[in-house]
What does this fold into?
Amino acid sequence: MKKSIITDQVDMDLEKALPIIKREGYKYVELHNVFGKSIEEINDEEIEKVKKLLNQFDLRVTSIASTVYFLCPLYATDQVSLFNPDFFAIEGNVEKHLEYLKRACYIAKQLNADVIRVFPFRFPDNRKPPFGGKVDKENIIANLKLAVNIAQENDIVLALENCPYSHLPKGQMTYEVIQAISSPNLRLLWDPANSYRAYKENVPKEYLSKNLLEELDLIFPYIEHIHIKDYHFDPNQKKPFVHRALLEGDIDFKRILEILKEKGYSNAISLEPEVDFENTLKSMNVLSTIS
It folds into this structure.
């Protein structure tokens, strides 16, 4: 397994983040927030700056963590909004996002990366749950096929993330979309913590029965990339899923990583801890000991 971390989790300033990542013994990084924008928005001069910094610290890119199809309405009447101002994301309709995807493919090639993260569309503010049912899924599939065509032309793998702010928060749900499209250029970005903290009222009942280990067993052959973060559920909090340093929350990542090793997973495990700096460093050290 390739031990990786999303750079903005260490510091929003790439020039500050990379030496720390190198110091902590990591050889791989994932890029999302860069120079105050989402990675697919950077210009050619900024690409060269990223390349220079990566070479300086001898780091390689595991994934371009684009925000393609995140703040993109699935239907023309959908209203979507950003859940966190520090999560930089592109906006616009499907056509605009596909133009950004072409740019992301170019950036990936320049940075010697062959995986680009995409999303299954932000769930809307103006429709009632559940989301991700038959009709939603058909529309997501149709739009993802357009993205897959671009990926095929550029010899890129799109990694579809199960995101709790999207129509498909569970790995089983994204897995069914991958199966329906059946292309080597579309695989899974599995985030077990996202599955764990999915808003249950948003999810059709048939997707609520599997635990994380059962989900992993089902979807494993289609996993291209993995995000790691931990949560503790505290019903007394306004937002009951509270971020914790790795192994200090509710998710049995030791067992998950054991199973991944047993199954021969060799791609990236990328940290996205979403905690403060001290706990990010702690999470990095913990991942080094268990991966």
Summary: Residues 114 and 144 are 18 Å apart (CA to CA). The radius of gyration is 18 Å. The chain has nine helices and twelve strands. The chain has a mean pLDDT of 97.
